[in-house]
């Protein structure tokens, strides 16, 4: 088992390998993380791990609030994640490589990172200025018939795009080239589909590429049929936790 200890950045989203992650970093715990990553030479990867939040707040409360308006907000690296942060996160995430880290006036950072490798969360350490985690790196196995499944998923995804563009009264760019590598297809489609965090997390956790593609094919066909008959799509993301500025 290959393990690594990295800074941990919990988010209300799922990061997939190969996908780009822009971040606006303004909380002190994550600013401290970026300052530490900047110490890594530019020619070396500046890695941190992203995990989706199961139970907690992406941005820690910064002022007294409900139900007790006099209660002081939490402070520290684990603020918003309860007494045992490990239980607040989904147990599989993705390593991110920060290609760009730019500090703005006032100390916030603009970060552009790319997902690289799936990891399993083994433990979380809150003793420093930001969370760190011990992680097990997970290989991506192709599974059976991944190539044929990828072709089917791409066809279904194009139909899904067309239906979704029509439902939202948007134009569809047809010139974009889609990949043909099965694992890349599986991650791209997982990230692009309009689904909630638990569904995307399930796709990330698939045991192999073929299993993920089979799940995506089922989801795409189901969603395309729904959009065809019910083109007005619910804004489910508006019912979840407040949008983060990170």
From TrEMBL:
Gene3D superfamilies: 1.20.58.1480, LON domain-like. One of its GO terms (molecular function) is peptidase activity. The keyword Hydrolase applies. Residues 6-224 form the Lon N-terminal domain. Pfam families: LON_substr_bdg. The keyword Protease applies. InterPro entries: Lon_prtase_N, Lon_prtase_N_sf, PUA-like_sf. Residues 60-83 are annotated as: Disordered. It comes from the Bacteria. One of its GO terms (biological process) is proteolysis. Keywords: Hydrolase, Protease. PANTHER family: ATP-DEPENDENT PROTEASE LA (LON) DOMAIN PROTEIN. This is ATP-dependent protease.
């Amino acid at each position: 088992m290959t393990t690594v200890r990295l800074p941990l950045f919990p988010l209300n989203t799922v990061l997939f390998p190969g996908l780009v992650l822009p971040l606006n970093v303004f909380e002190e715990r994550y600013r401290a993380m970026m300052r530490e990553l900047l110490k890594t030479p530019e020619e070396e990867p500046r890695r941190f791990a992203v995990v989706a939040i199961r139970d907690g707040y992406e941005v820690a409360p910064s002022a007294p609030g409900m139900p007790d308006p006099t209660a002081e907000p939490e402070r520290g690296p684990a603020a918003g994640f309860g007494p045992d942060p490990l239980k607040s996160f989904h147990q599989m995430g993705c390593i991110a490589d920060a290609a760009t880290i730019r500090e703005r006036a006032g100390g916030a950072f603009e970060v552009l990172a790319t997902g690289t490798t799936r990891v399993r969360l083994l433990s979380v350490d809150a003793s420093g200025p930001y969370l760190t985690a011990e992680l097990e790196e997970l290989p991506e196995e192709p599974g059976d018939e991944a190539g044929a499944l990828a072709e089917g998923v791409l066809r279904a995804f194009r139909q899904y795009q067309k239906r979704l563009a029509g439902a939202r009264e948007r134009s569809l760019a047809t010139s974009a080239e889609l990949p043909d590598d099965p694992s890349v297809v599986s991650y791209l489609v997982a990230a692009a589909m309009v689904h909630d965090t638990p569904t995307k997390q399930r796709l990330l956790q698939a045991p192999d590429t073929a299993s993920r593609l089979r799940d995506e094919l089922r989801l795409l066909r189901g969603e395309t049929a729904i959009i065809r008959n019910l083109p007005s799509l619910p804004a489910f993301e508006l019912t979840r936790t407040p949008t983060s500025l990170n």
